[in-house]
Amino acid sequence: MNLPFVNVADRVARALGRLAAALVVVMVLLGAWNALGLFVGPRFGLRLTSNSLTELQWYLFSLVFLFAAPWALREGAHVRVDVLNARLHPRQRDWIELCGLLLFLCPFAAFVAVSSWGVAWQSFVEREGSPDPGGLPRWPLKLCVPLAFGLLTLQGLAEAVRRATALRAAPPTEGPSR
Hints:
The protein is mainly alpha-helical. The chain is 75% helix and 0% strand.
């Protein structure tokens, strides 16, 4: 399928998937360091972890989920009722996916992207930081929320185009004639 919009959205989703995978590795290593630092550090009179490292760990956790969502949608790894889905004809699945994308996912993701923009922008303008001593700035993470939901909307629209194209291209198959 040679649809430029769909191809661009797919490339972005794949890049986000690779980014999320790399963030998982960093997050796990940081989590191991934090756990080890909390356990071993006091025994030797050392402070091996900090509020900023702990916050960075949950920032990475948030970014993994935010940026993996478009990739999961592209790869078909998102949640669906597989017991019912497996019993349906491919055209029925395409219709259900198309309706779900256009009626639920895209409007919801666009709503979150638009409605979170004001909060993210205000956080950026104020250079919002952590309330904890030695914590990280919060505004970069807050700016990622509308960005990620905007990218999820983009991928949802690409998937809708893919489904609509498949429905238009494949005529309905009839059962065996007798």
